[in-house]
């Protein structure tokens, strides 16, 4: 008598794992992180920092939003990675705010030059600064991200009506100095030692903030 084969109950009626995944979503792979960063850059450039959502970035990259949290943690970290910033702007804000109000100017220029004077920091910052002055999209990304993570927190400490204008004026001083020292390499700014630059610029920055 021919025996009838009993179906394997461990697999019968069980959908294939690949087909059970959410359509359009895939797990992490070798290129997943890069694809998330590409989608994030496009979103930050097109929509701005505030309007970019992690869900939208995940949808564009074709991954689950949980992977973004796994790789980056949150939107701030995603912005920092997508812009290849050499330092976390939130750490910059914390360092600036950690101390007496009447020494804000000195702390700002000290932290700023500290980033630029490190070999890796200078290389990355040069690339970012060149991109900012040549691309409206990159300029918008930087403007909105830095506003959220540095300008707003520092402005709140000043407690004056025109606080954001004051901090923006400081930013104009710092960007101007960076252009002349590191890109144009205009002497004597380009060859002046860091302590001298700090001594010369700190009072001017402090004046913008508290005068």
**CATH superfamily label of the largest domain:** Tetracycline Repressor, domain 2
Biggest sheet architecture: none
Helix fraction bin? 55-70%
For this structure, the CATH topology of the largest domain is Tetracycline Repressor, domain 2
**pLDDT averaged residue by residue:** 81
Helical stretch tally: 11
Global Rg? 24 Å
Query: Which spans of ≥5 residues are poorly predicted at pLDDT below 50?
Result: 1-28
* Highest-level CATH class of the largest domain: Mainly Alpha
The assigned structural class equals: mainly alpha
Q: Ends: how far apart?
A: 103 Å
**What is the domain tally?**
2
Oligomer: single chain
Q: Any idea what the shape is?
A: globular
Strand content: under 5%
User: Total number of β-strand segments?
Assistant: 0
- In the CATH hierarchy, the architecture of the largest domain is Orthogonal Bundle
Keywords: DNA-binding
Protein name: TetR family transcriptional regulator
Region (Disordered): 1-33
InterPro entries: Homeodomain-like_sf, HTH-type_TetR-like_transc_reg, HTH_TetR, Tet_transcr_reg_TetR-rel_C_sf, TetR_C_16
Give structural notes.
The protein has 211 residues and is an all-alpha fold. The chain has two domains: 23-82, Arc Repressor Mutant, subunit A (Orthogonal Bundle), CATH 1.10.10; 89-210, Tetracycline Repressor, domain 2. The chain contains eleven helices and no strands. The longest helix is centred in the C-terminal third of the chain and has 23 residues, at 136-158.
